[in-house]
Amino acid sequence: MAVTSSETTASSQTMNNVEAVRATLYEAMKSDDRTIILGEDVGARGNVFLITKDFIDEFGPERVIDTPIAEASIVGIAVGMAMEGLRPIAEIQFADFIYPSFNQIVGEAAKTRYRSNGEYTCPMVIRTPYGGGVRGALSHSVSIEALFYHVPGLKIVAPAFPADVKGLLNAAIDDPDPVLFLEHKKTYRLIKGDVPKGHYTIPIGEANVVRPGTQLSVVSYGLYVHWALEATKSLEEEGISVEVIDLRSIRPMDKATILSSVEKTRKLLIIHEDNKFGGIGAEISAMVAEEALFHLDAPIRRLCGPDVPAMGYAQPLEEAFMSSPAQMADAMREMVRF
Description:
Rossmann fold
């Protein structure tokens, strides 16, 4: 299933998500000499997804830095670069490898502005592909957003569409504080869309209502936005109207858009791939319960990953972990008919 927008025009170009990442990084490197890319295999190999292919030939090894397999060093060096006025974009090859850099992200980058009383900022981006659906198994399928969601001073972005990839990545590069930029690897070549040419930004912290509806609010992000939209197609034939909200930014979160939708539909289903316990859905549920409880006509429901340590390699195990569009449609029907 691919979501495709209009053809290329004078002011836009049809891209998939991985092409949008590559184009945005290239434009950033061309426009600002302070922009540095560093990570494992980003130079000579051009990234495992070929996102930075040929970058090292054009920008040189001083700006496209092949690092050792040492995530703590990748992020730690990027923190130092950012505090000295550069604009580093640190790549963690897969989100599953980010754990060694936890202290550098949480203890250093996220606290730089607060620790220095505003004297220093930390304008850096940490890019990493996350999520399942590609048979990546134990070490290449994890969702990490909840591990960092608790951390003030750190922004977390997870775009679903190519135009949002570009706009939010530009915003992340321009931001004076650290941004964790999550790219769902299943969407890299699966999802296509119309991407405006030139530099533009989408404000971090603004959700997008990708499908208006009246009977149920569905909140999601990343790959599951597309699967939720697919699920609504069969429901539309049944006369069921579902509103789908793409969070785009996990932190800060667009509370106003969520609350406005819930006040209209009076029912809320939260869908995400990450484990259910302590996930993003738990925070959204608490927020809506605190601020919109008396607008609800049904209990809030979460459709999320099971509480198991990892996604299995075997296809049945991966499918058992991930929610399918059919399962999403069933959950939507149950909510509307409650």
